[in-house]
Design brief:
The chain folds into 3 domains: 376 residues, no CATH class; 108 residues, no CATH class; 339 residues, Porin. The strands form 7 sheets. A 16-stranded antiparallel sheet has the order 23-24-25-26-27-28-29-30-31-32-33-36-37-38-39-40, with no helix packed on it. Strands 15-14-13-17-19-21 form a 6-stranded mixed sheet, with no helix packed on it. By secondary structure, it is of the alpha+beta class. The protein has 16 helices and 40 strands. Helix 5 runs antiparallel to helix 13, helix 8 packs across helix 12 and helix 13 runs antiparallel to helix 14.
Length: 860
């Protein structure tokens, strides 16, 4: 039964027109110096059910009128002159030059995250939902952040809330920016030749790309890690999840010492105080855990800090627990109740009256719990630690100093510069240390008599390196592919000389591939066939990540479900275990199933189908397991080999076909066998779940010896080839011809469950599953998939039709009476948003019956 009250709220979102550029209320004829009334996001108003489903967010804040001053371009900073506009991924901004020599930026409060979508999604339900989700951000959060950062001494540009005037001074930018509500702040820059326009006390200000170039090149340039930690603790306090490398500039305040210490300049706090609530958001968090929500309690530590993983793991690796505790204590001491209230009072008075008490209370609670949250994050980062050298020559000394401790010192080989790293690690916190010396002629010495608790990995990098292990208890692994590297190994240490391409970040590639931690998430397991009925189940996936094991170290998947028509269950398991920097992995798979064989019609290519519908049904319980070693020598090619075991139980129920042949049916009752498996798969082109172009060939043979229940040995061979002759991109598809040719052959004394068969979705549509069974089977299929056009109801979608023909036959004792069995038909398909989302429904008819097929993608 449907839920009648569910339709209107959903339709209100799904069918609502997407807000245009003027979705924010603009102030007409805003005059410099005036104070005007403005509503930043009236479109976010919603009813109670909409708020429950999609989130209340900050809708009340976005829809509350506030009074805001109009910017006076002639007076601010001595006079502002527009010099350029920029349309970012979600923010419209105007750059202005002040008479004081400084550069300023006016950024719209109203965000358009839909700009990141492909053009065909711009006017879709996806765009509507993403735009609606922007109400989770706080339009005035930057004003609160400003006072909080000032209280703890974090460098940042000061924000000012203004409405842009309708002023001729805007010139060519007048139509786009006049009447727009936004935040005006200084762009952190270094002073000009006359000493004007510098940010704060900075002698020099650089962006992230130049910073990384400097600290990678040598040890004269370094990040002030303690100042960065204070800045990051403030990000955690305000719930700002979007803190990647481009959210900082770096200031040099003093250049008189041997080391240039770069201080973080915190910027772009658009994601501060985000409240991601709502029923759908809670479901989405299972697959996108970075959807955190600000409140009195902290969200999951990893989720809040996910986007900052590159900078945090790089810049904070040298700080121990004491440094973290000290920084958290410092921040808490600076943020008194009075400071927090003063920060919240920076909100427009109308908003303070609406939520000021809640806001201040949430910040006080987060401040009080900051020490514990800092401890959790420290411990997360401390489990696997990456220590990084430079392109200069360095010396690393690693010493196991006690039953649980390891001391690490990394210093420049030449000169009197202070160490890059000097820290003690505890194996109760740190499971693995990764010391990458990068370029230069580096030396690494590992020693000490302490027990081998923490695994130590030392990467020599480029150059003539020296790697020495003098420790007593091992768990040391060196990595260096250079021909001129000298190594001295100790007990339990190894040297890996295989090449490996290290990830190097950039402003366009901010997120390193994950090589630490784990992730668990659920998936639905759903499908339907005529024999199985509706199969409903759940899959739980658990993925662990590890050093130089991409895309994962282990991937485990457990599925369980129930078939309505068959009245039986299936439980399946898959596990993939990848080796470090290797093309070789191990795969384990198995199942316990009551739906593998549901009908049996006997052997032959011309068996009859007469009798009641359940006459040919079989009660067949199947247990199977397989262990494969997988080799991937090149992209798209997989070779595998290993042992397999299978045990089945067939219940012979009186009155069914199988009862009449049970005495002579080899494999009936309880039957167990083992096998050796060898196979390959090779593919090219589109390897998605719904291929429109490309090819794939595969083959697998299983050799069963005459042991256990098998009287004699037998062999099976499965093979198939597929070709997809079409074109596609991320947006559209072209007419496609899909072809497949496959078969199965068996030799020896074969139990009935291992025979070759045709029928059903897998190889001969329009017929019962496993309709014909024999010693050998061959099948072929052809399908034309033709796009007819597109439409944009809720989602921009391609749609079309397909026409299909399948043929197949089986052979028993060299004979195949009955000829080729044919199934023909067609159907329609739709690809919402992208070709990879194709759904299809069709009807094919064979010689005895017809069958409907529907689901994700196509049959092949």
């Amino acid at each position: 039964m449907g839920i009648p009250w569910l339709g209107p709220p959903l339709l209100s979102l799904l069918l609502a027109p997407l807000p245009g550029a003027a979705a924010q209320e603009r102030v007409p004829e805003a005059r410099p110096g005036d104070t005007v009334r403005v509503v930043p996001g009236a479109l976010y108003a919603a009813g109670s059910f909409h708020e429950w489903l999609f989130g209340a967010h900050y809708r009340a804040v976005w829809t509350t009128p506030v009074r805001v001053p109009v910017l006076d371009l002639s007076r601010f900073a001595g006079g502002l002159t527009p010099v350029g506009a920029h349309t970012g991924s979600q923010t419209t901004s105007l750059r202005l030059k002040g008479a004081d020599g400084r550069t300023y930026q006016f950024r719209s409060v109203f965000k358009r995250p839909t700009r990141r979508l492909p053009p065909r999604l711009q006017n879709s339900v996806v765009a509507n939902m993403i735009q609606d989700g922007a109400s989770a951000s706080h339009p005035y959060g930057a004003l609160v952040v400003d006072r909080l950062l000032s209280a703890v001494g974090v460098l940042h540009p000061e924000p000012h809330l203004f409405v842009m005037p309708d002023d001729p001074r805007l010139g060519q930018f007048r139509s786009e920016f006049a009447g727009l509500l936004g935040i005006l702040e200084e762009r952190p820059n270094e002073a000009d030749d006359e000493g004007r326009g510098g940010f704060g006390r900075a002698l020099k200000v650089i962006g992230p790309e130049r910073l990384f170039e400097r600290i990678d090149r040598g040890s004269e340039d370094r990040v002030d890690a303690r100042a960065f930690l204070v800045s990051r603790l403030m990000d955690i306090l305000i719930g700002d999840r979007d803190r990647h490398r481009d959210n900082w500039r770096w200031a040099l305040l003093d250049d008189r010492g041997p080391v240039r210490w770069w201080i973080p300049v915190s910027r772009d706090h658009d994601e501060a105080f985000v409240r991601a609530d709502g029923a759908l958001i809670h479901v989405a968090k299972l697959y996108y855990p970075q959807l955190v929500s600000f409140g009195p309690e902290y969200d999951r530590t990893l989720n809040l800090n996910w986007h900052a993983r590159e900078v945090d793991r790089r810049f904070l690796a040298g700080l121990d627990r004491t440094a973290w505790d000290s920084a958290a204590t410092f921040v808490r001491a600076r943020l008194s109740d009075r400071v927090i209230l003063d920060a919240v009072e920076a909100l427009p008075p109308e908003i303070f009256a609406l939520q000021g008490e809640w806001f201040a209370s949430a910040l006080r609670a987060r401040r009080d719990a900051l020490g514990e949250e800092a401890r959790r994050y420290y411990e997360l980062l401390a489990r696997e630690v990456d220590l990084r050298g430079t392109d200069d020559a360095e010396v690393a000394v690693v010493r196991r100093t006690g039953p649980h401790t390891v001391d690490v010192l990394i210093r420049p080989r030449e000169g009197r510069l202070p160490p890059l790293v000097s820290r003690r690690f505890d194996d109760r916190e740190t499971h693995e240390l990764r010391i990458n010396l990068w370029g230069g002629a580096d030396s690494a010495f590992v020693g000490g008599s302490g027990r081998a608790g923490t695994r130590i990995r030392v990467i020599g990098g480029h150059g003539r390196d020296e790697l020495v292990d003098g420790s007593l208890h091992g768990r040391v692994r060196f990595y260096d592919s250079g021909r001129h590297t000298r190594s001295v190994l100790g007990p339990g240490s190894t040297l890996d000389r295989r090449r490996f391409e290290e990830w190097v970040g950039s402003d366009l590639d901010r997120y390193p591939p994950r090589d630490w931690g784990s992730w668990t998430r659920p998936f639905p397991w759903l499908f339907t066939t005529a024999d199985v009925g509706v199969f409903t189940g759940l899959e739980v996936a658990h993925t662990r990540y590890g050093f130089r094991a991409f895309p994962y170290r282990t991937d485990l998947r457990l599925r369980a479900g129930w078939a309505s028509e068959a009245g039986a269950a299936k439980v399946a398991f898959e596990g993939a275990f990848r080796r470090e920097n290797s093309d070789v992995s191990v795969r384990v798979q198995g199942h316990a199933s009551g739906i593998e064989i549901l009908k049996y019609f006997g052997q032959g290519n011309a068996t009859t189908r007469t009798g009641p519908e359940d006459f040919f049904k079989v009660d067949f319980d199947d247990l199977a397991a397989e262990l494969d070693v997988v080799f991937e020598p090149r992209s798209g090619l997989e070779l595998h080999a290993g042992p397999a075991v299978r045990y089945s139980s067939t219940e012979v129920e009186p009155g069914r076909f199988i009862a009449s042949i049970a005495d002579t049916l080899y494999g009936a009752g309880a039957f167990g066998s083992i096998a050796g498996v060898v196979g390959f798969e090779y593919s090219g082109g589109d390897r998605s779940g719904v291929p429109w172009r490309g090819w794939r060939v595969s083959a697998e043979t299983r050799a069963h010896p005459g042991v256990w229940s098998a009287d004699r040995g037998f062999v099976t061979l499965d093979w198939e080839g597929r070709v997809y002759a079409g074109r596609t991109d991320s947006v559209h598809v072209s007419p496609t011809l899909a072809l497949r040719l496959g078969g199965r052959s068996t030799w020896g004394t074969i139990p009935f469950q291992e025979l070759a068969s045709i029928g059903g979705r897998e190889n001969l549509r329009g017929w019962d599953t496993n309709r014909f069974t024999g010693r050998h089977a061959v099948w072929a299929g052809a399908e034309v998939r033709w796009p007819l056009g597109g439409f944009s109801f809720m989602l921009p979608s391609d749609f079309g039709f397909f026409a299909s023909a399948d043929v197949g036959r089986v052979v028993v004792d060299g004979a195949s009476p009955g000829g080729w069995h044919l199934g023909t038909g067609g159907g329609v398909w739709i690809a919402p948003a992208a070709p990879g989302n194709t759904l299809s429904v069709g009807y094919l008819r064979g010689g005895e019956r017809g069958a409907w097929y529907a689901g994700y993608g196509f049959a092949f």
